Amino acid sequence: MTTPTFTHYPLTLVSPSFDDPLTDLIIELDYLRKKPLSGTTHPLLFFQLKHLFHILESIGSARIEGNNTTVAEYIEAMLGDQQAGHMPSVVEIRNMEEAMTFIDDYVRDRPLDRQFVRELHQMVVKGLAAPPVAKVTAHRGSFGLMLFVLTKPAMYRRIHY
């Protein structure tokens, strides 16, 4: 594997013209950023849906790492199946949920620095044994470390569909 080399490319700010649709989006996003969060959905229902999506996101994230727990298995474990609740696959998903709650609670008050990422990592692996090197599956962690090298600035690359 070759060692990546750094090539400096001067960055330019995008300055869309006033008749460009991007200008309207930028102004609208800036307005929405300052607007308080509200809606017609009752807060209790909103937070129940948010919790459901956190569960689905945690299960999806665990799937990327090779966890095969189904939504039904996880819900059963959360509803009181003591034996299933201590399975490493269920603990992994529960840890991810707790990490997302931690992010929701503290991301506005704290910088996203090395310490914050360390705390998240400790939450995600809490109560899990590290897999032995010889027993790591082909799927677990295969998406965890990738090397990206850009050879040209994005504005010069062509994307073909």
TrEMBL record:
InterPro entries: Fido-like_dom_sf. This is Fic/DOC family protein. It comes from Fibrella rubiginis.
